[in-house]
Design a protein that fits this description.
Rossmann fold, alpha+beta, eight-stranded mixed beta sheet, transmembrane helix, nine-stranded mixed beta sheet, P-type ion transporter activity, ATPase_P-typ_cyto_dom_N, 4 domains, ATP binding, ATP-binding, Calcium-transporting ATPase, transmembrane domain
Amino acid sequence: MAMKIHHLTVEDAIRSLNSRPEGLSTREAARRHTEFGPNRVEHVRREPLALRFLKEFTHFFALILWLAAALAFVAERLQAGQGMAMLGWAILGVILINGVFSFWQEYRAEQALAALENLLPHQVKVMRGGTVKELPSAELVPGDILILQEGDNIPADCRLTEAFGVRVNNATVTGESLPKARDAHPSAADDLLYAKNILLAGTSLVSGEARAVVFATGMHTEFGKIAHLTQTAGEALSPLQREIARLSRLVAALATLLGVVFFVAGQFIGLTFWESLIFAIGIIVANVPEGLLPTVTLALAMATQRMAKRNALVRHLPAVETLGSATVICTDKTGTLTQNRMAVKEVFLAGRFSNAGELAPDESSRAFCETALLCHNLQITENSELLGDPMEIALVRMARQMLPASPVYPKVDEVPFDTDRKRLSTLNQTPGGRVLHTKGALETVLPLCTQVRIDGETLTLDAELRARFIAAQETLAGKGLRVLAFASRAVAEHEAKGSLESGLILLGLAGLEDPPRPEVADAIRKCFDAGIRVIMVTGDHPHTALAIAREIGLIRSDTPVVINGEELRRMSGIQLQLALGAPEIIFARVGADQKLHIVTALKRKGEIVAVTGDGVNDAPALKHADIGIAMGISGTDVARESADIVLLDDNFASIVAAVEEGRAVYENIRKFLTYILTSNIPEIVPYLAFVLFKIPLPLTIIQILAVDLGTDMLPALGLGTEKPHPGMMQRPPRARHERLLNWPLVVRAYLFLGVVEAAAAMAAFFYVLHTTGWYYGQPLASADPLYLQATTATLSAIIVMQVMNVFLCRSGTESVFTAGLLGNRLILWGVATEIALILLIDYTPWGNLLFGTAPIGLNVWLFVIPFAFAMLALEEVRKWLARKTILEP
């Protein structure tokens, strides 16, 4: 019965809920509260805090690190004194720090959102047993009789039983920007959302007074159903999460393969089983870039801090990069592209169109503005603040600008607005007598008029003039404006109220709009330049949606595709996918489930979809999309909890800045991935040389740890904070199938930069041995000073090469000299720290003891440094060839 309650008369509606006009008894209300539960929309379901914390330690890359730590402890058990236990503890520390940091970032973002929560009114007026009581909204039950007045939020779904000038703002549930009139008469509408006698939970009464019978509470309301739809929408991994998982599998496979190969090779050349196993474990550990995940996390976290300064609060770290890869943005209109406030844009006076701000101060405009100023039901505070219907507020503001000395004439009577009359009339007492002011839809005002005011003259309203006003209305409506007609006349002192609205003088027409945000047009243009498609998905009227789309540059052609909710409902999934291939498309009058349907179809087309919104109706799509962007000020908390990013200033233009940051993050991850992976080759080659050529091991596992978790970390993080490239937003989004670890990156890191670094490292090792008279085949004990110096030279050479490498990795194609050496302060601090660490490792007793090193002479440094400049020269040649290839057709 609840689904059809809007079809019933007032008496039948109340009777169907076993209620009475004087309300439920206290006992019956208590019984129903037990049966139906509290009137509360549950928050989006969240996993327990402890489980979410544990998940930070059980994703695939973390499991690889757990395995690496376990292998290190096994190796220490098999052969103590090799530093493997220290490596194991260090890896465990990396897992712990990274997990805690990731969890803390997301938890802190959620706490910031908690301050924005304000779902439903806390106190409501209810008829209980024939008396009015003020109760917490949570105690409402089906059958309660609500008493509502202007400014109240609607606490539950209810059917009007009495309505006086009621207008309701449904934007948070249906997405409609304009307040809608409501009355108590039975409705023939099929859809409950658009029935004229229904008030929905989560909406607000902008004008009028009403009584209504509650028929749905809590999760049974339309508001609650949308929240439930949000909860059941599954969460998908972000593109970055998928890439990190893929990278983790590749790293695990490569490390395991090399470990097995080394084990077999060790057995083949005569090493004992345990020696072969230990070196295999060493190879596996050397190939796991332990610093990658914390560096990725820190880079994302630092990007979130930069985005927060640009009014974008990131709730989930991977969302930073995901937004950068977005190919489509599905955006709501009301409050997102527009300001969610009405304004008079254009008027038709004296037979001419004028912009609202350019009215000439003549007799016609003064009469028009006086009616706009006086014909309303607004509340005016002591400091002249206007409270009530946004449309009436907009008209009064326009009139105040035109009439600086705004007359204030008392209202002595009114003929109230209702949905059948579609007009409001007020009778005001002026010094010259009583004047009736009327405003409303032209089709209801025009038949009441016999004259028209043009250029200060009052003329007979003939058929030709009537036709001109009708054509003017169609012109304004074609621009997506809400059109109101204004009329007035002097009224005799004792004239009957039933005859007041007759013989009126038509004054003019006003076209109102919810104006677009001034910065949105530029943001849309930047999205187009960046190859990002923007699709408007709104609950508003198609004409309004199309007009706003043209105004902000979202629609440029004469033949866009406009699909309304009814058409969308009749489409199959395949038909919708085909329709989405249109160059320009707008969806209007769509519901929450339909918005979700659109997002699903776009994802099936292979798009990476970002969705913006602020209402409860947006929440399911926000959660299902690759990236959900909610409004922080005007948005409901259901929308905010469902989103990945919250715009603290409700500014669509902030999305462009966030996209730029997201794209920079992906590029920066590639930069420090190149940097980190490069050092793997000079870490592996010493083991290859040891096994194949039976030389002393040039680099110990603890020294590998010094590079991976020590010297490489800060410079890599510096690469993660590189600013977006100036041309970043002129490129199309990267393809969905494009990999983080692709062949050009692998070839550059492993087969070019890594090989040069390995050559320098091995050259430094043999340089120290050669200058001290060592010969091939001569055994060296692990504590031999010569051996310690030789391994120190290998380690120091890797660090020197990585100092140069961090500057080379700032760009894959730009010259170091073009990009500059001083543009990134964190890289400079990282390099300074890197140099300080290697000096401490090489020249302090505790550094020597901890890392198995010994001081080396200046001659070793002078031998190594030319290799760094040789790598610079070779990389500059490669970049020159790369630029030449890109520029050639």
